[in-house]
Amino acid sequence: MNTLTQAIEEIVRAAGSMMRDAFNDPDKPAYSLKGRQDYLTVTDGAVERFVRAEIERRFPGDAVLGEEDGGAVNAQRLWIVDPIDGTANFARQIPHFCISLGLLVEGRLEAGAIYEPMHDELFIAQRGQGAWCNGERMHVSELAELPAATMEIGWSARLPAAPYLALVLRGMEAGCSVRRAGSGALGLAYVAAGRSEAYAEAHINAWDVAAGLLLVEEAGGRVNDFWTPEALSQGNPVLATNQRLAAELSVLTGIDLK
Ligand code: LIP
Predict the structure, then answer these.
(1) How high is the pLDDT of residue 1?
(2) What's the pLDDT tens digit per position in 107-164?
(3) In 48, 92, 98, 191, which residue has its Cα 20 to 30 A from 113's Cα atom?
(4) Buried b (16+ CB within 10 A) or exposed e, 58-92
């Protein structure tokens, strides 16, 4: 732990307690829909404002890009935050959501954390320093057989259903246990933790993956080259896998790995 990762941990843990308090509040937080199946709660906005204030206080001059209030996409030091990833779960009282906070320095992920407050799980990584879950070193699974593998495939209403269903079918026909739990960030964290062998999605936003992609790399896994010039403004496909199934899963999803 150093001052950077300590600061990241303090920020996401404080944000997590805001989320947990709201989730457990008898007067459930109000929510609306930004679009089809695209939930927004008052807590998303409150948490993002908190994170922005903390970054401003601790790292003056750094830029922030957030899911709710946008921000810079071409800063030298850029913090990327999804205040609540898994907002639909949070809004519907399903305890599977997290905050995701990542730091890009000159376009390269340098540090990041995902905190899941309902189970008090902190996933954190700094480039070259490994990936950790609650202080325990993480490593992707060694599983090498698709018929024993678990794969999460994300979905959002940003794309038509047919390609999603086709990918699910390919995964199931290959023998994978295919799931979708509603938080892309936690899906990536679980690959890093060895709890599943892959997370794939045909389109996802930078704030959903800005911590999880580093977690997977630092846990010895493989990821696609998400950070293209348009990644921050438009998003991209994402694939993260363990080592031993990387080639097969890249072919199955049609997403190249780095
Ligand atoms: C997420 C989506 C993503 C989806 C995840 C999650 P949000 O973000 O952007 O594409 O697959 O399950 O829903 O809206 O919860 O922050």
Answers:
(1) 65
(2) 999 999 999 999 999 999 999 999 999 999 999 999 999 999 999 999 999 999 999 9
(3) 92
(4) eeeebbbbbbbeebebebebbbbbbbbbbbbbbbe
Q: What is the mean pLDDT of the chain?
A: 96
The strand pair at 63-66 and 77-85 is best described as parallel
Ligand 1: distance of its center to the CA of 114 in Å? 14
Atom of ligand 1 nearest to the CA of 39: 14
Ligand 1 atom index nearest CA of 184: 5
For residue 93, count other CB atoms closer than 10 A to its CB: 9
Backbone phi and psi for residue 188, each to the nearest 5 degrees, phi listed first = -70, -40
Q: Which domains does the chain have, with CATH numbers?
A: 3-137 (3.30.540.10), 146-253 (3.40.190.80)
* Binding pocket residue ranges, ligand 1, CB within 6 Å: 67, 82, 85-88, 154-156, 182-184, 201, 204-205, 208
